[in-house]
Amino acid sequence: MTSERQTPYLIVDLDVVRCAYEELRMALPGAAVLYAVKANSEDAVLRALAEAGSSFDVASVGEIDQCLRLGIPPSRMSFGNTIKKAKDIAYAAEIGVRTFAVDCAAELDKIIEYAPGSTVYIRLSTNGGGADWPLSRKFGCSADEALYLLMAASWAGLRVGISFHVGSQQRDRHAWDESLRQVAMLRDRLRRKGIRLCGINLGGGLPSQYSEPVPSIDQYGTAIAAALAKHLGPHTEQIFIEPGRYLVGDAGVIEAEIVLISERTADPDDRWVYLDIGMFNGLAETMGEAIRYRIQVPGRHGPLRPVVLAGPTCDSVDVLYEKQRCLLPADIQIGDRVQLLSTGAYTASYSAVSFNGFAPLRTYVVDGDQVPIIPLQRAATG
């Protein structure tokens, strides 16, 4: 049964978040977890993960302060954004954050000056192949540059590690292999110079259940463990994994409303369906039709018909799915409630403050014995 709450809104089930965390710990038992706060920064989500034992990847002073307010100690935070103001690095170091990430010499210079004696992870670039939401170009450096930065950081008295990110919503469970080959090569070259890595951060990339099937978390764990053994063998470096989407994506459902159904004589083959949520108030990851959410319309059972799906704003960019049409029941009506599944990650946290005057996406959290307004469960894996 749907709720009478005003749409659009997001529901997050904390039991699903906890389940995902435990499944990840079992799939990669040797890896420490750093939850990427940016995926969903609801207080209740952070508390649940902190209680479960997670540490946190923070991207800004705002996220650091939020974690502090919730009682999460700085020792459980990693300032993983490679683009930081010097004053923010100094603040983080002053309150006790000791782990940072960089991918260029100018950023490393800031760490050396404002966070002396800390731990720095040099981020390798990846091509993002196999990911629906690639993270190439903006982040990471080449292996040769990483070697230089690792040596410079070590000689400046910092502890050093290597990180990389294979792209968000990574559907290839073997995507970590090439980056780990580069890590092993860098580790060997560093050892010959008397420098030891303190850790290896495998980044994020573990997927949620959208329209395309993905392997199970156990299959990812097996593939990553095999790549670690193949390239690093027995190792003493601490292994980290930095999930965001995987932990919270499948815990969320957005309920929205059909505002308009339009069939124009100028476009006789196109049926446009407009929702009260779009790219600017929660569905930013539909940009380029990169992330394709599963959508259902409760109570409608007619034959499926392709539609162009769009948001409500007065902006031509706010079209969600046009190149790959969305299939919705032919008998849908204006005013029907629509459910977008696996929307717990990068929806509310991406929502604009007030573009076109539309309110940010509201979030409601359910926990334990509370009955979800919309039944939630982890989708079966492919």
Largest sheet: 8 strands, mixed
Report the CATH topology name of the largest domain: TIM Barrel
Number of H/I helices: 9
| Amino-to-carboxy terminus distance | 28 Å
Keyword list:
27% helix; 382 residues; disordered C terminus; 2 domains; TIM Barrel; 8-stranded parallel beta sheet; single chain; alpha/beta; Lyase, Ornithine Decarboxylase, Chain A, domain 1; 8-stranded mixed beta sheet
What do you see in this structure?
This protein has 382 residues and is α/β, with parallel strands linked by helices. The chain has 2 domains: 236 residues, Alanine racemase (TIM Barrel); 117 residues, Lyase, Ornithine Decarboxylase, Chain A, domain 1. Helix content is 27%, strand content 24%. It has 9 helices and 18 strands. Strands 1, 12, 13, 14, 15, 16, 17 and 18 form an 8-stranded mixed sheet that branches. The chain has an 8-stranded parallel sheet with strand order 4-3-2-11-10-8-6-5. The longest helix is centred in the middle third of the chain and has 17 residues. The protein is elongated and about 70 Å long. The two termini are 28 Å apart. The relative contact order is 0.17.
